[in-house]
From TrEMBL:
Its EC number is 3.4.21.94. It is an enzyme of class 3 (hydrolase). One of its GO terms (cellular component) is neuron projection. This is Neuroendocrine convertase 2. Keywords: Cleavage on pair of basic residues, Disulfide bond, Glycoprotein, Hydrolase, Protease, Secreted, Serine protease, Signal, Zymogen. CDD domains: Peptidases_S8_Protein_convertases_Kexins_Furin-like. It catalyses: Release of protein hormones and neuropeptides from their precursors, generally by hydrolysis of -Lys-Arg-|- bonds. GO terms for molecular function: serine-type endopeptidase activity. The active site is at residues 99, 140, 315. Pfam families: P_proprotein, Peptidase_S8. It comes from Henosepilachna vigintioctopunctata. Residues 394-530 form the P/Homo B domain.
């Protein structure tokens, strides 16, 4: 077909008018992580006997069934056999592995692969197969996928936590730099086909980075929890980070988001791994590798039909949690994204978890929930979470209360703390009133001569003290500081928020430092109505019974 010059000009104008906005996507780094007392029997009258899977690597999967192998502590595991014995194996639930690709032709994965829910955002095609490298660097996603949905009793590798569930591959990590658009498209891909998104990556774990989701990615996550799963909300599971004691996962805006479930790890004798970060936003923990033999990691699928026993890090912990949540969703597919967080808090166990360096101890909050700064509310218990999910009544609507702010240049002295206070009625008599807490955010603007020496603590009216920022020895920033950064804590879960909240800031440094708190706002997130009134519990010593009693006592005041 021939066109004259005027036709070409009209076509050009017409095409130009179709473009509303053009934005250059800057590149930024995102890195893979970890590459190199509710009694079930009181909720389940008859648990069927369960036979062990026959898969050859199952005896090595100590995090599924810990018998003390490889120097581990017997019964320190995810208690998945109690969930399987109740008949839940993840059927009809899809978990998306957002990573460097998934080997969907692996014989232990191919029958549980959901092609319709998969996509490759690194090369823009429907086939998220990992790019070949000599060092198998792109094996990360395939290993994570096997933890969730490796098939059972097929004589190949081990077995997934939710071995009858589906996995989708979302390839989005394998390019030199990440962009906001790639992340946002990945987080919002097929939200009604995908139930759970599992992410074992984040900003660089170097102990000096403060970074999180950009605008489009944040909007995608918020849209996912509000509209995904046909309005029930997608579940976003995040690895808390592998920066060790020198980092703080509250400086990672993905792991510290209230829209995600942040998962830390423990090793097979109950102590934290050397690479585990700690922070007040961690909700629970799963497992990574063995204590006496570091090569005894998570046994799972690997590239090219192979198997591995060396997968580790919080990268390995997050997919285990995704598998447990898949079991819970099969037990009750009407669970909202918030229901899943409540179930996590109420059924996770202290078990034998402990801080090897004795820095962080187990503490009770104001309504009797036990938490630890490293492990959140404990290790996930698959048997307990599915048992409670079966009888669960969805929690009341969630509200966001702007509880007050402090503005001005408040100097943080070099040798002692500064304490700022906000007294709040938690939006009483307003449409946004909060009486029962879920997440709490201290949104702060702070600068310092050395950001890494700064420590922050938030104390609730019921006396729960959360370290919302710890010392980071590698962070020598003196310019950027924190700008409206939302430090989040889950430690006050279930508490009554009315009263005085205190923010304490101090330097942990032998050298003199100085800083200024320019702004601090308190954001309370939770419900106006008590969340557990419709549930009956047979075990009076369970977490749920303890919190219900505390809430009932609060209603009498």
């Amino acid at each position: 077909m021939l066109f004259d010059q005027s036709t070409k000009e009209k076509s050009s104008v017409f095409q130009t008018n179709l473009i509303h906005t053009a934005i250059q996507q800057p590149g930024f780094l995102r890195v893979k992580r970890g590459y190199k007392p509710l009694k079930v029997e009181n909720l389940v009258k008859h648990i069927k006997p369960h036979n062990d899977p026959t898969d050859p690597y199952f005896p090595l999967q100590w995090y599924l069934k810990n018998t003390g192998q490889n120097g581990g502590k017997a019964k320190l595991d995810l208690n998945v056999e109690a969930a399987w014995a109740q008949g839940f194996t993840g059927k009809n639930i899809t978990t998306a592995i957002m990573d460097d690709g998934v080997d969907y032709m692996h014989p232990d994965l191919k029958f549980n692969y959901n092609a319709k829910a998969s996509y490759d955002f690194s090369s823009n095609d429907p086939f998220p197969y990992p790019r070949y490298t000599d060092d198998w660097f792109n094996s990360h996603g395939t290993r994570c996928a096997g933890e969730v949905a490796a098939a059972r009793d097929n004589g190949i590798c081990g077995v997934g936590v939710a071995y009858d569930s589906k996995i989708a591959g979302i390839r989005m990590l394998d390019q030199p730099y990440m962009t906001d658009l790639i992340e946002a498209n990945s987080m919002g891909h097929e939200p009604n086909l995908i139930d759970i998104y599992s992410a074992s990556w984040g900003p660089t774990d170097d102990g000096k980075t403060v970074d999180g989701p950009r605008n489009a990615t944040m909007r995608a996550i918020v849209k996912g929890v509000n509209e995904g799963r046909n309005g029930l909300g997608n579940i976003y599971v995040w690895a808390s980070g592998d920066g060790g004691a020198d980092d703080d996962c509250n400086c990672d805006g993905y792991a510290a988001s209230m829209w995600t479930i942040s998962i830390n790890s423990a090793i097979n004798d109950g102590q934290n791994a050397h690479y585990d970060e700690s922070c007040s936003s961690t909700l629970a923990s799963t497992f990574s590798n063995g204590a006496k033999d570091p090569n005894t990691g998570v046994a799972t699928t690997d590239l090219y039909g192979k198997c591995t026993t060396t997968h580790s890090g919080t990268s390995a912990a997050a997919p285990e949690a995704a598998g447990v949540f898949a079991l819970a969703l099969e037990a009750n597919n009407e669970l909202t994204w918030r229901d899943m967080q409540h179930l996590t808090v109420l059924t996770s166990k202290r078990n034998s978890l402990f801080d090897a360096k004795r820095r962080f101890h187990w503490t009770m909050n104001g309504v009797g929930l036990e938490f630890n700064h490293l492990f959140g509310f404990g290790v996930l218990d698959a048997g307990a979470i599915v048992a409670l999910a079966k009888i669960w009544k969805s929690v009341p609507p969630r509200y966001h209360c702007d509880a007050g702010s402090v503005e001005g240049a408040y100097r943080i002295p070099s040798r002692k703390s500064i304490i700022l206070k906000i007294t709040t009625d938690a939006c009483k008599d307003l449409s946004t009133e909060v009486k029962y807490l879920e997440h709490v955010q201290a949104v702060a603007t702070i600068n310092a001569t050395r950001r890494g020496d700064l420590e922050l603590f938030l104390t609730s009216p019921m006396g729960t003290r959360s370290m919302i920022l710890s010392k980071r020895v590698n962070d020598d920033d003196s310019k950027d500081g924190f700008t409206k950064w939302p430090f989040m804590t889950t430690h006050t879960w279930g508490e009554y928020p009315q009263g005085t909240w205190t923010l304490e800031a101090r330097f942990s440094s032998e050298l003199p430092q100085v800083g200024f708190i320019k702004e601090w706002s308190l954001m309370l997130h939770g419900t106006k109505e008590p969340p557990y009134t419709e549930l009956s519990v047979l075990d009076p010593h369970s977490k749920l019974a303890i919190v219900k009693k505390a809430h009932e006592n609060q209603l009498k005041l």
